[in-house]
Amino acid sequence: AQTVTQSQPEMSVQEAETVTLSCTYDTSESNYYLFWYKQPPSRQMILVIRQEAYKQQNATENRFSVNFQKAAKSFSLKISDSQLGDTAMYFCAFMNLGDASGTYKYIFGTGTRLKVLA
Amino acid sequence: GAVVSQHPSWVICKSGTSVKIECRSLDFQATTMFWYRQFPKQSLMLMATSNEGSKATYEQGVEKDKFLINHASLTLSTLTVTSAHPEDSSFYICSASGPGGRGNEQFFGPGTRLTVL
Hints:
The complex is a heterodimer.
Chain A: E1 3-5, E2 10-14, E3 19-21, E4 24-26, E5 32-39, E6 46-52, E7 60-61, E8 64-69, E9 74-79, E10 88-96, E11 106-108, E12 112-117
Parallel strand pairs in A: 2-12
Antiparallel strand pairs in A: 1-4, 3-9, 5-6, 5-10, 7-8, 8-9, 10-11, 10-12
Chain B: E1 4-7, E2 10-13, E3 19-25, E4 32-38, E5 44-51, E6 57-58, E7 67-73, E8 76-81, E9 90-97, E10 107-108, E11 112-116
Parallel strand pairs in B: 2-11
Antiparallel strand pairs in B: 1-3, 3-8, 4-5, 4-9, 5-6, 7-8, 9-10, 9-11
């Protein structure tokens, strides 16, 4: 069974600074996707970034980038130039593309609460 | 694109009554829908997965007779909490995936806050 671990329950960062959120996962599968989702106080889940396991290049989306280390099963999120609007809960998620049931469930981590300080 | 709506956004009901929550994919055909429950300051817990036209598959520990899921069309799934009790109070989130989305990525609804008095 796959597991996703987020070891930082809470973090804070000064506005305009850079912060890195960690995520590790455990799987024996080779074909999967990894995601970072943001959940602001509105509680709407917002996709921040996704990474296909077969791609060696780290995904980037504007101020958001990942450090994907497949061998180490690590998938950290770096937020550059942090903004007050980045304050939210961040969840790491794993999706196994080899799921025999074909339903492609997400396995979520426990989340990291990020607070950006003015 | 890939917008998912939920209705209602919040509901208060009396203990013993049933509550229905709707989840709609507005601009794509959702072959699979997922229902999650989220307690305050916790992660999302998958309750069940439903494929259009077939019975839902429930996760271990989720009472199928209490949480009835129907996925009658490619754009609509419903979750009915039957004989609700205060311990059913929670935030319920649906998500949808299917052709027209990106691969098998899930798109999330805004959630429904249920309070049972």
